[in-house]
Design brief:
10 helices, mainly alpha, five-stranded antiparallel beta sheet
Length: 546
């Protein structure tokens, strides 16, 4: 089964078929190119998606990084980025191994086909030339035969004419013999041309064209085989990256399985637990008793009787957790944080200082060992060159030891206050105010006495700031004036509408009478003698250190 035998007379169809095959190769190359463009665009879009949702800066100090759900999300983004890289690998492999190779092979096939078609046309032209020679010799033989016949008739007619001379008869016979001879030569030439044409035709149909057709068949089969490889490579390029893509998908699944809802819930507690006790019950205020308020008005240290008839709407909100918050001023000892969070921060700082101190100790040992080696072997280096590094190392150790002592003192203070939190609440107002310090909401230039209203519409109650005064202001010291221990400047205005508090304006200078004892309030005094408590975070304190 070959084209030369079965398709000996289908030259035009074979020419069209081979051209169609080359067109199909070029169409497939174009298809693969568009596929690579799609893969590259897909990979680019995936990378842009990963970039869009990835954090710009990843810091271990970021609270979000501690949650398993967020870590899993980052892992999924990383795996998706690797997945995009594999799509790019597919596009690159298809471009190099399919498009480039098949385009090169297509050019070779085109050139080879052109050669075969040229050989076929040349063989066909030779056959046509041979056929023209045959036709010419045939027409000449036919013409010479007619001329010879005419010459023979003329000679017979002359020979029978009684008026013709002998010379005319001889001349007519000689002319007839000449024409016969020419006809015989034309016959021989025609026979020779016919034999040659038959040979050429046989050569053309049985040898030349079958060979050309068989070569074109072999060329077309090689083209089909190469195209088959291209089809296979199209799937193979995808299959090669499937293990890596599978690992990416497995990584995403593993990241999803690593989410621990219990751990995240506990982490929320660890991050935001304030350590403050819950507010106590509101005491019953008996207005039916006769109350003498003269003493309470004259001294801050005397407890306020139960019958305090003030506007209740303002103090009511202090018992709510969701009142407006203000931003606390950040301090080195983390006193702006709730007790539990302060303890954790101090412990974290202490651990970091211990690690840094251990590194400095290791570096100190290494420097001393190196100096001993230089002293014993001066050719290895100058021992004095290490003095500067040793001095810096000593300074770092001293600094770290000082910081450790400082943080240990603060930590002991924080743990002591945290342990004593469950005894008595000296200030009922302080509790609500301290809760607000745990919220990092925007700073509001408002007093902490934020007004809230109940949905039930019941009659509001008054919650005084202080419930116990005896231990703070003994009666025997009531008339004595306490010397100030420092000064402060009001950073924000404060209304001071609750009992025991004092209003102040932004920028006002006041004397500090008593430091904050961990409840978030500082006792201050005006130059005119008026005293009261203000939020510690609302003022900037400068203490007298002598």
């Amino acid at each position: 089964m070959d084209w030369g035998t079965d398709l000996w007379d289908q030259y035009d169809n074979i020419e069209r078929h081979t051209q169609w095959g080359i067109d199909l190769v070029e169409k497939y190359v174009k298809f693969v190119k568009e596929r690579t463009e799609i893969e590259q665009t897909y990979a680019k879009q995936l990378r842009n998606l990963v970039k869009k949702y990835s954090p710009k800066r990843i810091s271990r100090e970021d609270p979000e990084m501690k949650f398993s759900q967020y870590q899993s999300f980052l892992s999924i983004l990383k795996e998706l980025n690797d997945f995009a890289g594999q799509r790019e690998v597919i596009a690159e492999n298809m471009t190099m191994n399919i498009c480039a190779d098949i385009i090169k092979y297509s050019q070779e096939i085109k050139q080879e086909r052109k050669v075969y078609l040229l050989e076929g046309r040349r063989a066909q032209q030779n056959l046509e030339t041979s056929f023209k020679h045959l036709e010419n010799s045939k027409r000449k033989f036919e013409r010479d035969c007619r001329e010879a016949e005419k010459a023979a008739l003329h000679a017979d007619k002359t020979d029978q004419d009684i008026n013709a001379t002998k010379a005319d008869v001889e001349k007519a016979k000689q002319q007839a013999n000449l024409r016969n001879h020419m006809a015989e030569e034309s016959k021989n030439d025609y026979a020779s041309q016919l034999q040659k044409y038959n040979h050429d035709q046989s050569q053309f149909y049985y040898t030349d064209m079958p060979q050309i057709f068989n070569k074109m068949q072999e060329m077309d089969e090689r083209r089909i085989k190469r195209l088959k490889q291209g089809y296979s490579s199209f799937a193979e390029m995808e299959r090669q990256v499937m293990p890596i893509i599978g690992k990416c998908l497995d990584g995403m699944t593993k990241a999803a399985e690593s989410v621990n809802e219990k751990y995240d819930s506990q982490l929320v507690i660890d991050l935001h637990k304030s350590g403050f006790p819950r507010p106590g019950d509101v005491e019953f205020e008996d207005y039916s008793q006769v109350i003498n308020r003269a003493s309470s008005d004259s001294s801050l240290g005397t407890p306020k009787p139960a019958g305090d008839v003030r506007s209740v709407g303002k103090n009511k909100g202090k018992r709510w957790l969701f009142s407006k918050r203000y931003k606390a001023t950040v301090s080195e000892d983390f006193s702006h944080l709730p007790p539990e969070q302060r303890r954790k921060k101090l412990q974290q700082k202490l651990d970091e200082c211990h690690k840094d101190l251990q590194k400095e100790f290791d570096q100190r040992d290494a420097l001393h060992k190196m100096k001993d080696v230089y002293q014993k072997n001066p050719q290895m280096g100058d021992p004095n060159s290490l003095d500067r590094g040793i001095a810096e190392n000593k300074q770092n150790i001293d600094r770290l030891q000082t910081e450790i002592q400082k943080y240990e003192m603060w930590l002991a203070d924080a743990e002591g206050r945290l342990a004593n939190k469950g005894d008595t609440i000296r200030y009922s107002g302080h509790l609500e105010h301290s809760v607000t310090l745990n919220n990092n909401g925007p700073h509001e230039k408002e007093s902490p006495d934020t007004t809230h209203s109940d949905d039930s519409g019941q009659e509001a109650i008054t919650q005084p700031v202080y419930t116990e005064f005896e231990e703070e202001f003994p009666e025997e010291d009531e008339e004595e004036t306490v010397s100030p221990i420092g000064e402060c400047i009001a950073l924000y205005p404060f209304e001071g509408s609750s009992e025991g508090t004092m209003s102040m304006t932004e920028g006002e200078k006041l004397d500090v009478v008593e430091e904050d004892k961990g409840d978030g309030w500082t006792r201050v005094r005006r130059s005119k003698g008026e005293e009261g408590y203000v939020p510690t975070t609302y003022i900037k304190i400068t203490l007298d250190r002598h």
